[in-house]
Amino acid sequence: MLSMAVLLAALGVFAHLGTFTHGCQLPSEWRPLSEGCRAELAEIIVYARVLAIHREPPGGGAGSLYNSLPFGFGYGYEGAEEGLLYSAEVEMLCDQAWGSMLEVPTGSRLNLTGLGYLSCQSHTVMENYSYFFFLRMDENYNILPHGVNFQDAIFPDTSDNRRMFSSLFQFSNCTQGSQPFHTFSPEWDNQEDSRLLCSSVQAALFEEEERGRKMQERLAAAERRNRQLKERVRKAKRSLRNARKAARKAQQEAQELQEKLKAAERRVGHHLNAITQEEPPPGRYASTTLRKRMQL
Ligand SMILES: *[C@@H]1O[C@H](CO)[C@@H](O)[C@H](O)[C@H]1NC(C)=O
Ligand SMILES: *[C@@H]1O[C@H](CO)[C@@H](O)[C@H](O)[C@H]1NC(C)=O
Ligand SMILES: *[C@@H]1O[C@H](CO)[C@@H](O)[C@H](O)[C@H]1NC(C)=O
C-alpha cells in the first residue's frame, strides 16, 4: 500500500516535471550567455530581500500577469499553470547605479510578479532571503523577472554572485543596511574590463555564427545540386542501360530471324532436292530427250 502511494507520488512528480519541460522550445540558434553579458542587457538590476510570497490571483482578469507575459505563452511560459505563478513582495536593498529604470530609494517595497515554475526557466525565491534580480517592467507597470536570453534572472546571495555583480552597484547609494559590495572593490577594474570585452566578444560570436550559418546554407545548396546531378546521371545511366538492353534484344531477334531464315532455306533446299531426285523436272527431261534425239 505504501509502495503504491510512493509510486503514485513519483508518477505525479514526473507528470509535473513533464508539464514544466514540455513545450520548452528555444530557437535553434540559441546559445547560453554569460551572466556578465546578460547583466548588460537586463533592464533593471537590483539587490533585494524577499519579505513575503503572494499567490497570483487564479484565472487572472484583463490586464493581469497572464496577459503581460513575454512572447504570449511562448518560450517558457506555456508550462505555467494556474497556481504555479506567484508574486513576491521585496524590500529594495540596492538599486543599480546607472541606467536603472526603477529609481526607487533603498528600503522601498515592491511586488515582483511572474515568479514561479515555468517550462524553460524557473524564477523562484524564498521568503527572508536576499537575491540579485534582473527585472523588467511591462506596459502595465508590472515588474517581472527579466530572463535575458531565456536564462536565470534571479541569483542567490552567494559570495560568488556578490563578486560577480559588485561592479553593478559600485556607485549606487545603498547607504541603508549592509553594504555588501564595497568589500570587492579590487575586482571592479577587472569586471569593468570584462564587461567592455563582453560586447565585442558577443558581437564577434554572433558574426561567427552568422558566417557559419551562411556557409551551412551554401553547403546545403551545393549538396542539393549534387544530389540533383547524381539523380540526372542515374537517370541517364538507366536509359543507357535500357537502350543497350533493347539493342541486344534487337540483335538477338535479328540473329534468331537469320537462323530461322537459314533453316527455312535449308528446308526449301531439301525439298527441292527431294523433288529432283524423285521426279526430274520437265526441263531436264526435255533436254535428255532432246539429247537422245540428237544422238539419233
Ligand atoms: C503586494 O501585493 C500584495 C498582495 O496583492 C499586497 O497585499 C501588498 O500590499 C502589495 N505590496 C506593495 C508594496 O504593493
Ligand atoms: C521570515 O522571517 C520572519 C521574521 O523574522 C518570520 O516570522 C518568518 O517565519 C520567516 N519566514 C520563513 C519562511 O522562514
Ligand atoms: C544617498 O542616500 C542618502 C540617504 O539615503 C541621501 O541623503 C543622499 O542624497 C543620496 N545621494 C544620492 C546621490 O542619491
TrEMBL record:
What GO CC annotations are associated with the protein?
Answer: extracellular region
Q: Which UniProt keywords apply?
A: Signal
Q: Where is the signal peptide?
A: 1-23
GO terms for biological process, alphabetical: negative regulation of gene expression
Q: Where is this region: Disordered?
A: 271-296
UniProt protein name: Coiled-coil domain containing 3a
Species of the source: Sander lucioperca
Q: Which gene encodes it?
A: ccdc3a
